[in-house]
Every structure is written in C-alpha cells, then in structure tokens.
Design goal:
The structure holds two protein chains of two kinds. The longest helix of chain A is centred in the C-terminal third of the chain and has 24 residues. The radius of gyration of chain A is 21 Å and the shape is globular. Chain A contains 15 helices and 15 strands. Chain A is α/β, with parallel strands linked by helices. By secondary structure, chain B is mainly alpha-helical. In chain B, helix 3 crosses helix 12 and helix 12 packs parallel to helix 15. In chain B, the strands form two sheets. A two-stranded antiparallel sheet of chain B has the order 1-4. A two-stranded antiparallel ribbon of chain B has the order 2-3. The chains are: A alpha/beta, B mainly alpha. At the A-B interface, helix 1, strand 2, helix 3, helix 4 and helix 15 of A face helix 2, helix 3, strand 4, helix 11 and helix 13 of B.
Chain lengths: 429, 358
C-alpha cells in the first residue's frame, strides 16, 4: 500500500508540476456536469465559462491580464467540493463560486482562514450578507430570505394585500439549501397572518407522489418551491398531474429555468418563478458572444444552452466576477491582482446602469453596490412566468424589494451566532 | 526468497502466535508504521491531507467496522451511512455540550453511542438472515437519516439543519475547525486508525473473532459446538458499530467540519463502504485498507491525470471514472472474488518461493 501511495505521489507530482504560467487571473469554476443536478449545473457552467472566454478572446482578459479558467467537477457533492477547493486554493484562485449551498457552508470557515473569496450568488449562507462577520464571503445581489420575502409580497399583490387565513406551503429540498427560507417564512407568517407549512423532498427528489398527496389533502392556496436539479421537473410534472393551479405555484430563482418546465409540456403553462435578471438573447453582448465564442468553436459544453435562464445566471455571475476584478485592478493600480485585492474589489463593487450597458447588458439586472456592512446587495427580485406555447419565460412584475424589517434581525442573529462560534470580532477594515 | 520462514524459529508460544510471525512481514509492518508516523506528517500539505490521506484513513476505519460485521460474522449490513451519522451527531452533541472535555474522548464516546445504537438495530439478526437482514439494516439507514433531519435537538436547532464542528484542541494543537493544520488532521486520524486496526486484528485472531467466524460459516454448527449466537452476533454488531461510529465522528469533526446528513450519510455511503469491503476482501483487515485506498484514491488519481494532466473536459473525466471504476469492480469480482486481500495473499505465496518456484 505504501508503494501504491508512493507511485500515486510520483504521478500526481508530475501532473501537478505542469501548471500554466502564474501571471494569469485564476478563476476557479466548481461546476457539476454529472449527477442528479447536472441538468441545472450544465447551463450555469456554460454561461460562466463562455463569458470569461469572451473576455479573453475579445478584450485579451481583464485589464490586459488573461483569465485562466479552472473548471473542477463537484457533482454537487461536498467531499468532491472540498477536493476541488484544496486543489485550487494554492493556484492563486481569486473567487470561488461553488454553486452549491452545502459546499458553500463547507467552505465559509475555510475561506475566512485561508483568505480566499467566495461569491455565492443568490445561494449559500444568507447571513453572509453581514460583511462585518463574513469578510471573505459575498452573496450579492440577493439571497434566499430575500427570495422568500419577494415571493410572499407577490402573493400579497395577487390577493389584494391581505393574507389572513391563507395557507402557504413550502416544498423544499431536504438539505441546508431547502431549509434556508423556513425561518423567514415563519416570521412572515406571524407578521401577515398566513398559515405556513413545510414539506420536505429528499435528495434527489425523483419520487414526490406522497408530497403531492399531502398538498392535495392540505389544499394550500399557494405552493412555494425551493428545489434543484431533477426535483424541479418532477415537482412541476406532479403539480400538473394533480391539477394544482400553476399560477399559484412559485419557485425560487433556482427552480425557474427552461430545463425545469419543458419536460412537463403544456401542463407547466403558467408556472411562476422568481428572477434575479433578464434572460434570452436580446442583449447586444450576444453579438460579440456569437462572433468570438460560439462561431469560433470555443463555447463551453455542447453550446446549446446559450440564452437560457441558467446560462444567463452563470454569465451574470461571471460578469460580476469580472467587474469585481476590474474594480480591484483600479483600487490596487496593478493588473495582476491577488485574492486579497479582489476581496477589496468585491467590497467596493458598484454596478450601475452604465457598467451594464458598457458590457452589452443594458437593463439586464438592477444596479447595486456592495459595502462592508452589506455583502448581499439590494435584495431585489422579479417574478417571471412560463409560457408553454411560446416556450419562454417572461417577466410579469417589476423589481420587488424584500422586507428588510423581518430579514435584518434574522441576519444579525445568525451572523452573531457564527461570529461567536468562529471567534470573529465583527468589524470593517 | 522474501517471506521465507526458514531460520525464523519461535522459541515460545507468544512468539509463535504473534500477529506477523514471519520476520520480513514484521519489519515491513514496522517500516510502514514508522513512515506513517514519522515521515508523512512532515511532508503532508493541505491537498494531500484533505483530498487523499484523511478520507482514506477514515474510510479504512469504517471498512474495518463493516468488515467485522459482514466479513467476519457474515451479517450483511446496508446501514453503514446511517451508523456513521450516529457517530457524527453523537460527536457533535458531545462537543457542543461538554466543550471542556477533550475531543479525542468525544470521538471515542461517539463510537460507544454508535455501538449501542447498532446493537439495537442488530437485534433482528437473531431471527432473520441474509437478504432479509440487509433490508432491515436498510430500514435503519433511512430511519436514522430521517431522524437526524426531523428532530431539531440533534442539530441544536440550527436554522439550516447543518452541523458544524467547533474548534477544539488536543495538547494545545488545533485538531478540528478550519484553522487545523494538515499534519494535525492526519495525525488524529492515523492514531485512531492504528488503534482500531490493532484492536480489530487482535479481536479477530482471538476467541471473539473465532466465534464470529463460526457463526458466519454455519450458525447451527456453531451453536452445537457451544458458541452463543446471541452474544456472538450482538458483539459483532457492537464492535462494528464502535468502529463505524469513530469513523463517522472523524468524518464530521476532523475531515469535513460541516455536515448535512442526507448528503453526507445517504445510502450511497453505505454502498461505498460495502464496495470497499467487497473489493478489498471480506474477512481481512488488510483488505479494508486496500478497498478504502482503491475507492478513495482512484477518483482523485483519474481526475488529476485526465483533467489536470491531459486537459480533458471535467464531465468526460467524471463519466470515464464511472466506467473505469465499474469495469474494475466487475473485473475484480470475476477474476478475484476474494478481493485485493486475496491478491496480496497470492503475491506473498509467490514471493516466498521466488526466485525458485519449483
């Protein structure tokens, strides 16, 4: 066995010695193109990769420094995520985007100690919004608690401003991810007087007959869904089977993409989902994307996801990373920034209408800025609805702000608990 | 030439019945221990500890535990994941409830708690056997995971139902939490592995192990020659649970640091450990190590070769891993049904005669 270990170490040593030049901006991509969550992981990874490829091909990188994309397959599995993180953190990786709440929870304490940056965009630990405690963790532009609040606000609009006596059921992935909004919904239920119930779906969520039977028995007025991967498709199909009114079924932004609704066919018509940004190909940036990436044969994956909701999300994530690095370059005055400088760049990030227009994405997402006190951005979201005839998602509301009166105390309490646990003195600078 | 017992005389009974009666074997064993304890800690880095060595050592303990139950006592168990979860949650509750007591004690106690729980789930084994027992342990697996999700007391009412290991020190050295040095993680696991392996090896060589094997080979015959099946089976469940609990506690506190029960201790984990035992060799302590090494190192090795070395797409490499791992498992089971341990035994036989096989 020792011999085997030795042999492995020789092989691994040889493999690891052949890294590319060091003067690159290393952006790791913890993706998953296999497993029960690949259906959602692939478009996101493609979008992330393609935008960075576009930067490299069109602009020669960021500020003249090439981007080195390091993709690592996690399979949505925490053990593999740890392996990826450990193998990438020594390469000068600037921002980790694990796209998994479980892996994010895993990495948060490590990132604080190792000085690496995590950007969990719209997922991960919600209280990371408090940058005074979570110095290296960012979750702008919105988080799960914002999502829960936005969904409830939208329901309130639908019901004419009164939720007394209504029943709202949360169908959630039985994991840290799915359980995130429960506290917020409980608080909101108290505040608005609706009745909250939670129904868990175990990984991977391929079988949901009993959950939908429960929903049929309880007759909730609205069902919210915190699902991911194959669970989304199954839930929408089941909802269609039991003839649950689709416009009263609302998914978080991770349960609202084409890959989730298309399999249910016409039954999915009218299903609603939250949205953080626009989607589709109607942005000038896609002309360049077509020219420099797709036509050049450099698109990631099969290249068939361009313009879908989750592709747009991955691209948006890459866009935010690029802008943070640009800010860091400006602050530091050098092109080849390190992780600590990028952290400062992320904290000073200011996305305006002009920044987005300059990137060829006018009106794609709301403008926002990040500060030490607020690593979570403005918490704005929209509601979109699936049109099964046109096979597309369209936005049906403007921007909805979350209820910070309810969320802020929860964030303060949870981040204070983490600070006490990890021995962090909250503070800026 | 190697492994020759000529000239290797034993002059007393203890010498004759020691674990490694052949001198060369004994020195090899000491050499491995010396390298593991005195050399590797000085060279290990974060990647090697977290991605290779620590998971390998922890899965070795779990595989030893399952091997005692399945390989030595013949009771098939599909509940390993759930039993590891018991160890992890027991460790978490003890760590948070009694922070002043050493975490090493907590890990041992977590093993004890798991032993009690596993014994409880082992009770049906007195009436049912084989596939039926496998199904009842499968029920244990699902029940335990469900319970750790359902009862908030187990995760101290945390908002997400995840548990995280607080920072703890042993002799002033940080061993859990994010600030742990690679070598400290490795050493903690190594100490527990050595302790468990020595304990298991000696148990299986003694009267306890012989009773287990008698039950495995034919329980009615064993009963007739005076083995108490109640005691033998339940002791196997308890000892197995103790090891699996230690593995679960280490998995949570030292290796991952934060755990989500469904994801970390699902049915996949039960199968993974069972495959380790089958590939490594049923009824062999060495086999537990070999199987754990095979299933922990292979994915990491392939990933580094295919993605890091050849620059292949990550999904292709992952799919190829499924094909290669599956293929190797089938090849092993056809060509060597007794696992890697049997290959090792055959190699030893050959080495004894080498270079004059006739």
């Amino acid at each position: 066995m020792k011999l085997k270990l030795k042999l492995t170490s020789i092989v691994l040593g040889a493999v690891m010695a052949t890294g590319p030049a060091l003067a690159d901006l290393v952006l790791p991509m913890l993706s998953y193109r296999t497993g029960a969550y690949a259906v959602n992981g692939i478009p996101f990874a493609d979008g992330y990769n393609d935008y960075l490829t576009l930067m490299n091909e069109r602009d020669g990188g960021i500020g003249g420094v090439k981007i080195d994309i390091r993709e690592c397959e996690t399979g949505y599995n925490t053990e593999k995520g740890v392996e990826c993180y450990e193998s990438l953190k020594g390469t000068g990786a600037l921002i980790f985007s694990p796209l998994s709440t479980g892996i994010t929870y895993q990495l948060i304490p490590k990132a604080t100690v190792d000085g690496t940056n995590i950007h969990s965009m719209g997922y991960g630990r919600t209280s990371a919004k408090n940058g005074k405690v979570f110095r290296n963790v960012f979750n702008y532009p919105a988080n799960y608690w914002d999502g829960a609040s936005i969904a409830v606000k939208h329901i309130m609009d639908q019901e004419g401003g009164d939720l007394k006596g209504k029943k709202i059921t949360l169908l959630y992935h039985n994991s840290g991810y799915g359980k995130e909004p429960i506290r917020t919904l409980q608080e909101l239920a108290k505040k608005h007087g609706f009745e909250y119930k939670g129904i868990a779906v175990d990984h991977p969520g391929q079988e949901q007959k009993s959950q939908w039977l429960q929903i049929r028995q309880q007759r909730p007025d609205y069902v919210l869904m915190w699902g991911w991967g194959v669970m989304n498709q199954v839930a929408i199909q089941e909802a269609a089977n039991v003839r649950f009114p689709m416009d009263k079924f609302i998914g978080i932004w991770w349960s609202a993409s084409e890959n989730d609704t298309v399999p249910a066919g016409a039954g999915a018509h009218g299903y609603k989902g939250l949205a953080l940004h626009g989607s589709g190909m109607g942005y000038p940036m896609y002309a360049d994307m077509q020219k420099y990436v797709v036509d050049a044969g450099k698109a990631a994956g099969a290249g068939d996801q361009v313009g879908t909701v989750l592709y747009s999300r991955g691209m948006y994530n890459a866009f935010l990373a690029v802008e943070a690095i640009k800010t860091a370059q400006k602050l530091a005055g050098v092109g080849d920034v390190n992780a600590a400088q990028v952290r400062d760049g992320m904290e000073a990030l200011n996305i305006t209408e002009e920044t987005m227009a300059a990137a060829g994405l006018p009106g794609f997402a709301p403008p926002f800025s990040v500060s030490c006190e607020n690593h979570g951005g403005p918490g704005l979201g929209m509601v979109s609805q699936w049109d099964a005839d046109a096979q597309k998602w369209s936005l049906i509301t403007g921007l909805i702000a979350s209820d910070m009166d309810v969320i802020q105390p929860l964030i303060d309490a949870d981040s204070a608990a983490f600070a006490a646990e990890a021995g962090i003195t909250p503070g800026c600078g | 030439m190697l492994y020759r017992e000529a000239g290797d005389y034993s002059t007393s009974y203890p010498e004759d019945s020691q674990t490694f009666p052949i001198k060369f074997d004994r020195y090899r064993y000491y050499a491995i221990l010396a390298v593991a304890f005195l050399v590797i800690p000085f060279f290990v880095n974060d990647y090697w500890a977290n991605a290779v060595l620590v998971p390998f050592l922890i899965y070795s303990i779990a595989a030893i535990g399952l091997n005692i139950l399945t390989g030595y006592c013949g009771q098939v168990s599909l509940g390993t994941g759930g039993f590891m979860a018991v160890g992890a949650y027991a460790c978490y509750k003890l760590m948070t409830a009694f922070p002043e007591i050493s975490v090493m004690v907590h890990i041992l106690l977590a093993g004890g708690v798991t032993a009690a729980v596993v014994t409880l789930f082992g009770l049906p084994s007195l009436r049912i056997k084989g596939f039926y027992l496998a199904v009842s342990t499968l029920a244990a697996q699902f029940f335990l995971v469900w319970m750790f999700n359902k009862v908030p007391w187990f995760y101290n009412y945390s908002m997400t139902g995840m548990i995280g290991s607080p920072e703890r020190t042993v002799l002033g050295i940080v061993v859990t939490g994010p600030a742990t040095d690679a070598w400290a993680k490795y050493m903690v696991c190594l100490i527990f592995v050595t302790f468990c392996a020595v304990l298991a090896r000696n148990m299986t060589r003694g009267s306890v192990g012989r009773k287990w094997m008698a039950i495995r080979d034919m329980d009615i015959a064993a009963e007739i020659i005076g083995v108490n099946p109640l005691m033998a089976k339940l002791s196997a469940f308890a000892v197995s649970g103790f090891f699996i609990g230690i593995a679960g506690a280490l998995f949570f506190s030292v290796y991952l640091g934060a755990i989500e029960v469904t994801e970390a201790f699902g049915i996949e984990k039960s199968f993974l450990v069972l495959f380790m035992v089958i590939i490594g060799g049923l009824g062999s302590i060495f086999g537990s190590f070999a199987g754990a090494a095979f299933l922990v190192l292979l994915p990491v090795l392939l990933k580094n070769l295919l993605v890091g070395g050849l620059g292949w797409p990550t999904d292709l490499a992952q799919h190829l891993y499924f094909i290669i791992a599956g293929g190797l498992i089938i090849i092993f089971l056809i060509l060597e049904p007794h696992g890697l341990a049997q290959l090792w035994r055959v190699a030893k036989e050959k080495l004894r005669l080498w270079p004059f096989p006739h």
